[in-house]
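stuck on this fold:
=====
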Amino acid sequence: MKNDRETMRPFTPFKNLLNVDGLPAEAPNSRDNFLVREGNQVHKALIYIEAFYGFFFLFVTLIQGYYYQSVLNAALFVFSCLAYIIQYKGYAFYSKIFNLSQLIIILALMFYFPASPYGIHANDSVLAFYIPVSVGTLIAFQGKENKYGYIFSGLILLVSLTLIVFDPHYLTDQPVATLTGISYDLLYNIIGAAIATFTEVAYILALNNRLNESLTKANHELDNFVYIVSHDLRSPLLLTKGLLDISKLKVGEKEEVLKYLDLAGKSINNLDDIIKEILAYSRNSRTGLQYESFDLKTIIKEIKDGLEIKDGPSFSFLEEYNGDSRIYSDKGRLHTILRNLITNAVKYRKKELNDTYVKIVFGKTGNRFTITVSDNGQGIARESMDKVFDMFYRATSAAPGTGLGLYICKEMLEKMGAEFYLDSTEGQGTSFTFTLEQATPVVPA
């Protein structure tokens, strides 16, 4: 009976806003750099909020007939987009300085030029927006940048007090009119500032929850790592030691000694595989994505050449390419993912069959590409489908392994923002498919 398809988390652009796993490759793994990185994530969310409100209030003020405020709201939208571009180009700190400076100035100008023809300051309530800006500023500047958060928050307080205390654009003898009914300016600004503050706090709480989940996951994986060090790493070491001790006792029996040395070599190779997988997981968790242009066929050939089993009467290595195989992605992670998937297909093949195979199918549509690795091997039992992506889980003991392969694949694909799923039928074979969006190549200035 066919197993249900296991669909993993689909990629959405907003998922990256809550990404707290790992650091950019160029940043040392320190507390300050981690906090700065999370501050950059908060600032990116603030830019989205600003751009939305600038765009929204552009139309509100146009409808009201406050055209100069429409210009300021349009400027807020444009400058927010520029701040996003600056951050996207890798200048996160300068993006924060630019964005918060223009925001303070635009809000001050909105206050200074009244939104009403009456002799009162009907737009005083725009100062309510300084509340979410001040809160966001303190959180956007974290770690070694926190002094700038205090500077900007103090500047916001100083500007708002100055605007309230000194009001030079009205004459002291100007008659003051009285408004009756609802002040829509007050209503719009207070509601807008409240929603902005709520959105900001909700995002920060979500980021904090995601961080707690990441820490819980890290603690769980640390417990598992202690287990593998004490069991999976120690066992081959003890086995190798025992085989070498036996070889010493049979030093005069060449055939026996060679047999034990061969077994010791296999044990060492197994130990080396475990260490490589642990290192691959470690590199994935602490380094950022590293994009480059490469030909997928080259990676497949490298993996194929490294396999212990070659094409022959009992095993076939099949490839199918639909579209240009040159892509722009994280080559190192993609190599690790494909190596694990292809190696699994080889390890868990049906050795009693004469037509076993592993098949790689590549397809490209626009800026996205899909890779499927399938085989006609042992397959995965239905009760194991929910567990095969767990750390150190092995669905079968029929072949050697640590249970880290699919776990590492999942972690890397999630970090790369991929859509992926596993489809398997016990006794018939397994198919693993993932879809990735190519990164945009960075053109040197």
Q: What stands out?
A: Residues 184-249 form the longest helix (66 residues). The longest strand covers residues 356-365. Residues 1-13, 22-26, 115-119 have pLDDT under 50 and may be disordered.
